[in-house]
Amino acid sequence: MTAAGRVPCSDQSLSRADPIYGTASAGFSWVLLELPGAWGHSAFLNSPNIIDPQLGRAIVGRFEKAKMRIAAIRRHGRRSTTPRWRWFIAHSEPGSEALYGGEVSNPREYLDLALDGGDGSPSTDPVVAVCAHGKHDQCCAVRGRSACKTIAEQYPEYTWECSHLGGDRFAATMLVLPEGLCYGRVDSTDSAGLVRLYLEGRIDNRYLRGRTSLPHAVQAAQYFAREAYGDDRIASLSPLAVERGEGIIRVVLRGDPGEIEVVLTEEMTEPLLSQCDARVEGSVRVFVLNSIRAA
Question: Percentage helix, strand, coil, to 5, in the chain?
Fold first, then answer.
């Protein structure tokens, strides 16, 4: 139970069988900045033992002004007494994905990073970031750290703990860059296996929330197309058209060999608590399959 005596939000979500597809956080470009140590409720604003809150606010403001998603990262497990300040910048637009990484000597230098990642080196290895931000939500602490430990045992160089990604009720949540693949409930499956699939250019549709650079309706349409036609390739099913009508959304995907038309209905759930510490219930959007056909 939570401090308020409630069942944790991820357990509630599982019992309701909340749909996981079409829920990936939005973001065409991501910046991940190493903040070694314990994070407060906001990693950049409430972690004075790591970073001055005024500096943290300036860093967040700079990247958010550039419409980039920002998250803190740290290595899993026991940390070195000598802090390091590594960073990654990823661009996740399908077909032009890119990932750059580097290191600075102190966090103030994060303010001077080139927004395109040009200060670093291109990376051919992915970044696997698992939310383990316990001060933001207890589910991320319990489920996220467990999943991160499992993945890090097999892929230590790829794996990082990260701050809040959104969708706490789907903990443990995971982001894979540069593609911006957002997963949920990864602790309830072979979490390292999801990374193995990624390295083969494939996804597990059961746990994929969506791709962060795509609209939520497209994320949902891809889910239904993969369910119907068994295409688990990361690069497949790119969107060709999205049309909104009265109460429905028509999404056309590039299929193999022809186009796939997915028609969705957008609905709102009954009010729910989406985080462990949420005080006010709110409805969330879900997409329901109306029809699907291959041209």
Answer: 25, 30, 45
